[in-house]
Amino acid sequence: MSEEDAGLKEESPSREVETPVDPGIVAVASDSSRAASVDRRSSSMEPAGNLENQLVLLSVFYQGKPLKLPGTHDHIHKVVFRILKNVCGLWSGSYNTDVLGDWGQRQCSQKVAMEITTYAYECAVPRPADLNTYYKSFTSETYGETNLEQMASIIDELGIGSHDVFVDLGSGIGQLVCFTAAYAKCRKSVGIELSQIPANYAKNLGGHFKQLMAHFGKSHGRFEHHQGDFLNPKFKKLIVEEATVIFINNFAFAPDLMFRITNELLQDLKHGTRIVTTKPFGAHKKDITYRSTGDINSISDTRELTSLEYGVSWTAKQVKFWLTTMDHTKLIRYYEAERQKKLEPKSREGSDEVNEREKKTKKRKNGKESDGECSSSNTSQNGKKKDKKKKVAAGTAVFTASTGALFPPNYYK
């Protein structure tokens, strides 16, 4: 090893390194002798092979891999320049994470995930404006991108993580799928795109993303890009049974497509599945009625998410994002409440009858008591009369029926 090489290797990583990578950044063109020297300096580099049309960057990051990019495209040179500029601002000949900051960690922060996804996007799509030519204007196929900042906000607000399966229906060139795999590290992130050309871009972007993540020594979740109609039955198991978070940029979707998505997919989603959209499927804060029991609102709840200014590419105005969460117990609760309402009048009737019977019984009792009181009062009155008669008979005069005369008591003595 030369003195120059030894000088660059000031500090070994604090963690155990299975395959040490000599720090340094090297751009390699068609010079075969230079390629051979690069191959000797990096024990982790795969055989360079034919490097005539390649740029190769050695990694300065822990467990980082060499990055090989096609060297015949101007837009690739710009990406490489940006990477070099970024890394040179971080690298000081040390693996110390205090120096490298977030870039020295295996897990991607929001900023790092955005940077790497942007590098992959710029490598895969030389002229982003050309993407609009592959879609029909003012139709459900109109192209539009959700910005990575907005996607990061959604991931944070929903708490998307390693336990989730993220599915992007109408994924375009697939940058949201890659970003979610890097930032949220989902168990699986899947994009399904109908148009062939954007789907080809997505696979190209995915290839660059993998290389860049390996170059910067970052881990990510599994991700896939598919070309096809997401309403095709071959994707139904993925969407209905596996997905826990579904993203649909349905801002420009026609009513007939919205109807098909609702009836062919959303109605069959499992309980707890979350759907993020730019146009709500369910009614916001709307109660269930008899007429709406067949509507998506009867088995879901919809609320507005945090929407960032300039969160999308197709307009400078703020576009609202909505979260619809499948809740199968909602309809059960509605029918139970309706059943209770039907039972309540009968229970009220029964209680009224009981009350009426109790009133009649009480009335009869009260009547008997009053009759008893009357008879007792009459008896007492009659007793008083008899006593009075007795008093009269023992009074001062006696009336004789024969003469009608009234004689004094001493008359009979």
TrEMBL record:
Record field: compositional bias (Polar residues): 373-382
Enzyme class per UniProt: transferase
Keywords assigned by UniProt, alphabetized: Chromatin regulator, Methyltransferase, Nucleus, S-adenosyl-L-methionine, Transferase
BP GO terms, sorted: DNA damage checkpoint signaling; DNA repair; methylation
Localization annotation: Nucleus
Residue stretches spanning the membrane: none
Principal cellular location given in the protein's record: nucleus
Keyword Signal: no
InterPro entries hit by this protein: DOT1_dom (IPR025789), H3-K79_meTrfase (IPR030445), SAM-dependent_MTases_sf (IPR029063)
Compositional bias segments (type: Low complexity): 26-36
Superkingdom to which the source organism belongs: Eukaryota
Domain DOT1 residues, every copy: 6-339
Statement: the UniProt record of this protein carries the keyword S-adenosyl-L-methionine: yes
Region (Disordered): 1-46, 342-394
GO molecular function list: histone H3K79 trimethyltransferase activity
Pfam families: DOT1
Catalytic activity field: L-lysyl(79)-[histone H3] + 3 S-adenosyl-L-methionine = N(6),N(6),N(6)-trimethyl-L-lysyl(79)-[histone H3] + 3 S-adenosyl-L-homocysteine + 3 H(+)
Gene Ontology cellular component annotations, sorted alphabetically: histone methyltransferase complex
EC numbers on record: 2.1.1.360
PANTHER family hit by this protein: HISTONE H3 METHYLTRANSFERASE, HISTONE-LYSINE N-METHYLTRANSFERASE, H3 LYSINE-79 SPECIFIC
Family: Belongs to the class I-like SAM-binding methyltransferase superfamily. DOT1 family.
Function: Histone methyltransferase that specifically trimethylates histone H3 to form H3K79me3. This methylation is required for telomere silencing and for the pachytene checkpoint during the meiotic cell cycle by allowing the recruitment of RAD9 to double strand breaks. Nucleosomes are preferred as substrate compared to free histone.
Record protein name field: Histone-lysine N-methyltransferase, H3 lysine-79 specific
Classification lineage: Eukaryota, Metazoa, Ecdysozoa, Nematoda, Chromadorea
